[in-house]
Write a structure and sequence with these properties.
The chain is α/β, with parallel strands linked by helices. The protein has helices at about 40-50, 65-75, 115-130, 155-175, 215-225, 245-250, 290-305, and strands at about 20-25, 55-60, 85-90, 95-100, 100-105, 105-110, 135, 145-150, 180, 195-200, 205-210, 235-240, 255-260, 275. The protein has seven helices and 14 strands.
Length: about 300
């Protein structure tokens, strides 16, 4: 079942495409189990981008991860010359664009980076106490992140993650830095926090509170505007409650947007814009993550007859 893409009477041009895609990566595009991207998803991304649909990744992942797991497979799949893909990484702190010829310059907002001394202490903490369950992500340029080993069971990792998060907060205090865990409201901390811990099902990101999927959405609009592109509508896609910030920012700034939640069991909030799930494609409730993300990509490709 395909979804309507635009309102009647709106003229589609190369500068005003029917829609633009703003995509979280872990979950909707890359499997949270294997961390890689299925060939069918790569093929649909290439086809949509080649047809003039802006494809922008908005992720907490590093530019190195996007290059390896998304850019290189898209180029290998035959991404046409002249097609530009934008990648906003580390929740807005790092961004770059790529074409069939490869990546362009890497941009880093160093003002949003976690202090290096703190990152060094987290690296030591992981090596000494948590190396059996997680690893320190050496590819991050602004955030500090740790991630579950692929061979560790999810329930084991999540139990260890709670201990790590508590230790990471203690180290933050020793550096005289203010921090809070996302959605954890400790009296006297959240209102003054400069940094936050954002635990996911496979990782913990430690980051400036100024980072977020809303910052990524803002950068996405700026990157397209620099190309002279103003989409008629947007589709944002994510697998967590924090991903709604993409659609929140776009709606607040008067863009037409619908949000796709590929893991709605976390809870679907009430929003002033349309929220889509796998059920809108008449798929079963257990179709989640990249299975759901891939189904939506294919539905948009079919609706556009690409």
């Amino acid at each position: 079942m395909t979804q309507p893409l635009q309102s009647p009477g709106r003229t589609v041009t190369r500068e005003n495409p029917a829609l633009a895609l703003l995509l979280d990566v872990d979950g909707p595009i890359a499997s949270p189990v294997t961390r890689d991207v299925k060939p069918d998803i790569i093929a649909d991304l290439v086809a949509l981008a080649a047809a003039g649909i802006p494809v922008i990744f908005n992720t907490g992942r590093s530019d190195a991860f996007i290059s390896e797991q998304v850019m290189e497979p898209m180029i290998a799949a035959g991404m046409p010359s002249g097609t530009t893909i934008h990648a906003i990484c580390e929740k807005g702190a790092v961004w770059f664009s790529y074409t069939a010829e490869g990546p362009g310059p890497i941009h880093v907002d160093h003002e949003l980076a976690v202090p290096k001394a703190y990152g060094d202490d987290i690296r030591r903490l992981v090596a000494e106490d948590y190396a059996s369950h997680m690893f320190f992500d050496e590819t991050k340029r602004a955030m500090v992140s740790v991630e579950q080993h692929l061979d560790v069971a999810s329930e084991d990792y999540l139990a260890e993650q709670k201990l790590f998060d508590a230790d990471a907060l203690d180290i933050m205090a020793r550096h005289n830095l203010n921090a809070a865990i996302l959605d954890h409201h400790a009296p006297g901390s959240d209102d003054t926090a400069d940094y936050r811990l954002d635990p996911t099902i496979i990782s913990t990101d430690i980051e400036s509170v100024r980072l977020g999927k809303d910052l990524g959405a803002s950068r996405a609009v700026e990157l397209l505007a620099a190309q002279g592109i103003t989409p008629l509508s947007w589709r944002t896609v994510g697998d967590s409650r924090t991903d709604y910030a993409m659609a929140d920012w776009l709606h607040h700034n008067d863009h037409d947007v619908k949000h796709v939640d590929v893991r709605p069991a976390d809870g679907v909030p009430v929003k002033p814009y349309t929220i889509l799930t796998a059920a809108d494609l008449e798929l079963a409730a257990d179709v989640i993550h990249d299975d759901a993300g891939g189904a939506f990509l294919r539905s948009w490709r079919e609706a556009l007859d690409i």
